[in-house]
Amino acid sequence: MDNSGFEQLFGGAPLMAILRGMGAERSLAVSITAWDLGIDVVELPIQTEEDIEALRVVAAAGKERGKIVGAGTVVSAEHVAQAASAGAAFTVSPGLDLEVVRASHDAGLLSIPGVATASEVQLAMKAGLTWLKAFPASVLGTQWLTAMRGPFPQARFVTTGGMSAANAGEYLSAGARVVAVGSALEDPAQLPLLAGLLGSGDRS
Predict the structure, then answer these.
(1) In a domain, 7, yes or no
(2) How far is CA 158 from CA 26, 28, 173, in A?
(3) Is residue 170 part of a domain?
(4) Do the domain assignments include residue 199?
(5) Which ranges in 38-151 belong to alpha helices (H)?
(6) Is 32 within a domain?
């Protein structure tokens, strides 16, 4: 269940957007803000019918602009089917569920499972997964990332949960490959800071 395709999907960019529960219209508006800023990858968690409709709208708009849109909070095979039907290119889960990862791969979608312990990182990597979601990142902290780099140098972490322009740089410096930001994209004061992170160069 190799998910190394995320290397190309993220293209070395250090940020992705995660838009939770915003509805179709607002999700599209914030996605456009992200795309215009230079954040090419957008994730929409799907927990309600409204979320799935928002994913469908943003995925269609992203396809027109050549942007990648995925589904988050994917915790079942049913969610995987809904994500694929709505046009998602990848799935993200809060925890490590290899059945969800397998269902995603079977549907032609890349998948990132969530991890919070060394045991989960080890199990995920044993299954062939190198891109992992560190969640909740603000609770785990930057020291968690630093500690994981020792035993798992091949792991590529995407940090989600409590991320903003204020702390994204710290997590990138600690070893995160990508930081997922959400509400920061609706704060005009944070946009220049995010742009600065995007302009800091390829981190591969």
Answers:
(1) no
(2) 24, 23, 13
(3) yes
(4) no
(5) 49-65, 77-86, 98-106, 118-126, 137-140, 142-149
(6) yes
**Is 133 tagged catalytic?**
yes
- Residue 103's domain is classified under what CATH number? 3.20.20.70
Residues 6+ apart with CB under 8 A from 114: 92, 93, 94, 95, 96, 132, 133, 134, 135, 160
d(CA 170, CA 178): 12
In the set 7, 43, 53, 126, the catalytic residue is 43
The amino acid occupying position 27 is: S
Task: Average pLDDT across each block of 10 residues of the chain; the chain has 204 residues. List them in order.
Answer: 95 96 97 96 97 98 97 98 98 98 98 98 98 98 97 98 96 97 95 90 42
Active site residue 63: no
Assess contact for 59 and 88: CB atoms under 8 A: yes
- Judge contact between 16 and 182, C-beta under 8 A: no
Catalytic residue among 49, 133, 170, 186: 133
Q: Domain count for the chain, please give it.
A: 1
* Structural domain boundaries enclosing 116: 13-193
**In the chain, at which residue ranges do the beta strands (DSSP E only) sit?**
15-18, 41-45, 68-72, 90-92, 110-112, 114-115, 131-134, 156-159, 178-181
Q: Which candidate, 73, 76, 37, places its Cα nearest to that of 55?
A: 73
Whole-prediction pTM: 0.95
Measure the CA angle with vertex 106, ends 104 and 107; round to 5°: 65
Q: Which residue do the tokens 């070893």 mark?
A: 175
